[in-house]
Amino acid sequence: MDALTFFGLERTDDARIWRMPVVPSLISGTGALFGGCGLGAAIEIMEQVTGRPCIWATAQFLSYALPPAVLELEVTEAVRGHQMSQVRVMARADEREILTVVGAVGKRPNPLEGQWANRPDVAPPADCPPRPLMNRHQGTIMDRIDSKLADARPYWELTGTAGSGNASLWVRLPELSEPSAARLAIIGDFIPFGIGQALGLRAGGNSLDNTIRIAHRVPTEWVLADVRVHAVADGFGHGLVHLWAENGTLLGTASQSAIVRVHGPADHERTDERPLTELEGSLEPDR
How many CB atoms lie within 10 A of CB 232? Predict the structure, then answer.
């Protein structure tokens, strides 16, 4: 399956306008579009319209989209140079702006190359236990993602003891196995997972932004998401994810800031009892 099919992206008569139905298989645990899917879809149409590969892209999440909304994504190639383009995508639903994505696409042949980040020493995917999911994840994007705990705790062990700030898990998308920036945008959206691991609580967050930077595109069934939470303060969490292929190649990095929220004692409970329509500033609620 290619990324267009995975996201359900539909071309229109206007080459700059695309549509994407918000369906349950693209949402997070509280019923709104998963942030990594919003960013990944925008990256895919950036590449389709320009014919150039993504270098980096960042999304600012302004609101949320619930099924059965249909996103309208408008692509603008603001600057096109000989080897790269600067691109913008505006996504709206029902006259509301949901997210804005800006980024650069292109490629510059150059023999210089190096890799200086350090991959954590963890067991291979076959030797790691599956990540247990909560009931609220059923019927969401998590049904399309396989994940294994490489260096992380299952949710029932998050009882108040803080972690190191570093956690890692192996992730694969069986339907989206080809190396692509859109795939990495989904896998990179795990800072909220890391926030819970760092705090030692069943906590997560609403994404304020999500940035992906692409280093290499190599075939790999599993991607190691090495999550590094830098700080939680004033109600917000900030962190970085290094994305590694099974062979040790650094595929890219993702970074994010999120509104920190603590989950209730049961899967169906939330500490914030306001209805979803009043939650501030995010396309992608807690997961």
Answer: 19
Residue 174 CB burial class (10 angstroms; 0-12, 13-18, ≥19): exposed
Round to whole Å and give the CA distance between 77 and 4.
19
What single DSSP character describes residue 145? Answer: -
Residues 6+ apart with CB under 8 A from 37: 7, 26, 141, 186
**Residues in contact with 4: Cβ distance below 8 Å, sequence separation at least 6, in sequence order:** 44, 48
Cα torsion angle, 135, 141, 146, 147, sign: negative
Q: Say if residues 202 and 263 touch (Cβ distance below 8 Å).
A: yes
Q: Does pTM surpass 0.85?
A: yes
Per-residue pLDDT tens digits of the chain, which is 287 residues long? 999 999 999 999 999 999 999 999 999 887 899 999 999 999 999 999 999 999 999 999 999 999 999 999 999 999 999 999 999 999 999 989 999 999 999 999 999 999 999 999 999 999 999 999 888 888 999 999 999 999 999 999 999 999 999 999 999 999 998 899 999 999 999 999 999 999 999 998 889 999 999 999 999 999 999 999 999 999 999 999 999 999 999 999 999 999 999 987 644 333 333 333 333 334 444 44
With 0-12 CB in 10 A as exposed, 13-18 as middle and 19+ as buried, what is 271? exposed
**Tell me, which fold does domain 3-107+122-278 have in CATH?**
Porin (2.40.160)
